[in-house]
UniProtKB/TrEMBL annotation:
<dbReference type="Pfam" id="PF03401">
    <property type="entry name" value="TctC"/>
</dbReference>
<comment type="similarity">
    <text>Belongs to the UPF0065 (bug) family.</text>
</comment>
<protein>
    <submittedName>
        <fullName>Putative tricarboxylic transport membrane protein</fullName>
    </submittedName>
</protein>
<dbReference type="InterPro" id="IPR005064">
    <property type="entry name" value="BUG"/>
</dbReference>
<keyword id="KW-0732">Signal</keyword>
<dbReference type="InterPro" id="IPR042100">
    <property type="entry name" value="Bug_dom1"/>
</dbReference>
<feature type="signal peptide">
    <location>
        <begin position="1"/>
        <end position="18"/>
    </location>
</feature>
């Protein structure tokens, strides 16, 4: 079983400022710390969740901000703001407008690859500065407790025979995460990706639509299913993890792999900065996020939200994202969704 893991800033003096070009981009060039290349923030920091309150981006941003404060990892205050819209595109445009200002970071996950690839945003991961990935989460496919399917293979067999009769619902837009994670698993099971009837409910009504019978299958994150499973209203047919997860309730969720479907989907989630950050600024944040990752607070947070540990520094993250983008493009091609 896999366990759920879950330097003072020296400001330029008047003479130095003149040598630096009259103070141009003072805020963003604050990395000149005593000439040793180190950097520290000179003002409070903003974490942006490119979504509304309560979702995975928002929760990750708020729990990280709380951890930095409780563990005394950073002296500066951290504020979390929500910039929702466009499946993340509104928040990304906001951060793009903060170029070279290292006091604004945002949380991201696979939609940062998917949304630009399907033409819904002009900004992609290459337009920003990867800082650190912090966790991995997994998808879950849930149905009503009285649904006729007891495992994924029964569901997929029906989808092969009668695809028009089964509606899959998710909170993300078509071609984004909830849709694509389902497509990846269903395709491996032999379902024609273009036959999947997917609808998007970005207004928070996904669970209501499932329970009311307006949809048959809910593609979401593992955490979002726990309370309704406890209440006996839904059952989880499968999750996209590599191995069975540990923890109350989720330990009962079978993986697609153990059902003979050799496919997984990782919902990685981490932090990015605006374009134009310096090496010293990146190094500062890498050190702080590594410290947070290793803290008791973050271990408890991972356990609370059924997240796994998946820390990557900036360089590792950038390489990972290149490979992930290739995979996401292939999946979008499967459903005939790509940038025109």
């Amino acid at each position: 079983m896999k366990k759920f893991w879950l330097s003072t800033l020296a400001l330029c003096t008047g003479l130095t400022l003149a040598a630096c070009g009259g103070g141009e981009n003072e805020e963003s060039n604050a990395d000149n710390n005593a000439g040793d290349g180190s950097w520290q923030p000179e003002q409070s920091i903003e974490f942006v969740a490119p979504s509304g309150a309560g979702g995975g981006w928002d929760t990750t941003a708020r729990m990280a901000a709380e951890g930095f404060e409780e563990q005394n990892i950073m002296d500066e205050g951290i504020g979390v703001v929500n910039k929702e819209g466009g499946g993340g595109a509104v928040g990304w445009a906001y951060i793009a407008g903060k170029a070279e200002n290292p006091h604004h970071l945002f949380v991201a996950s696979p939609p940062l690859l998917l949304i630009p690839l399907n033409g819904q945003s002009e900004y992609g991961y290459e337009d920003f500065t990867p800082i650190a990935n912090m966790i991995s989460d997994y998808g879950a496919f849930a149905v009503r407790e009285d649904a006729p399917w007891d495992d994924l293979n029964e569901l997929f067999d029906d989808m092969k025979d009668n695809p028009d009769n089964i509606t899959v619902i998710g909170e993300s837009s078509p071609g984004s995460m909830d849709h694509i994670q389902f497509i990846k698993i269903a395709k491996e099971a032999g379902v024609d990706p273009q036959s999947v009837k997917y609808v998007s409910a970005q207004d928070g009504s996904t669970m209501t639509n499932l329970l009311n019978g307006n949809a048959d299958v809910y593609s979401t994150g593992v955490t979002e299913t726990v309370e309704q499973v406890r209440a006996g209203e839904i059952k989880v047919l499968g999750v996209t993890a590599e191995e069975r997860l540990e923890g109350e309730v989720v330990e009962d969720f079978p993986t697609a792999v153990e059902q003979g479907i050799d496919a997984t989907f990782i919902n990685w989630r981490g932090f990015f900065g605006p374009p134009g950050m310096t090496d010293a600024q990146i190094a500062y944040y890498e050190e702080k996020f590594q410290e947070l990752n290793d803290s008791a607070h973050w271990e408890d947070t991972r356990e609370k939200y059924a997240w796994n540990e998946l820390y990557m520094d900036s360089e590792e993250y950038a390489e990972f994202l290149k490979e992930e983008e290739k995979t996401m493009q292939e999946l979008l091609d499967d459903v005939n969704m790509q940038e025109e």
